[in-house]
Design brief:
281 residues; alpha/beta; eight-stranded parallel beta barrel; 8 strands; 34% helix
Amino acid sequence: MIYIGVTGWGDHDSLYPGPISPRDKLKEYAAHFPTVEVDTAFYAIQPKRNATKWVHDTPSSFQFIVKAYQGMTGHQRGEIPFATKQEMFHAFKESLEPYIEANKFAMALFQFPPWFDCKRENVEYLRWCKKEMGDLSCALEFRHQSWFLPQYRQQTLDFMKEEKWIHSICDEPQSGEGSIPTVLEAVDTEKLLIRFHGRNVHGWQKRQAENWREVRYLYRYNQQELQEWAVAIQKLAKESKDVYVLFNNNSGGDAADNAKAMMNLLELEYEDLAPMQLDLF
């Protein structure tokens, strides 16, 4: 099955045409898409009560992709707010329990930073992460080009397969070593993740710019670009049972529209979406 959604549910204005409480946005979101990325988990491990509410707010077949906490992937500046790394991983796994119990946990997404390059120390850390996560489904996304240099590309893919990582395939600006190429390879026959970050080359690496976070994902995919990807997604869906597609290009509010366009191109009609809350009155 192909699941299409976006990252987060709070900032997609085109999905919420009328006044709506932030607490009710996920209910309305679930009327449009069958999956979402919980990106708030990156900034802080979420209390279980939040996950319990979100599980309650969505249909039975809805799937959550939970982004790993920044301390787990090396984004955290300074000391982690836990006594040990093991304690941090344990807290994160505990936060996933409501999703798992409701059969709504698709995977945890480990997105590593641009400075996490291909070297032995980091390969060993990836092994350690996977061991700590046990049998839970985990996707792996790189941001440093070295993992897919010609001399390492196949080894990286083989490593992901051996360690039972789900490949997070990216469409993102190609701007040097702080970006990765699109590698159309499924390493797991059960699950695959595809994330669209846009192609804003000029905004991708300008970390010193005052509005960097606002323009980083400022991009709207055109019909031709989406059509090319629709063909690739159909091919990948033959290699992996469940393909999750997330649009993250939302600096300008384009993610939801592009996700809807991709659903149309793939002729997807989901049967178990939530009712349109705003249409009830």
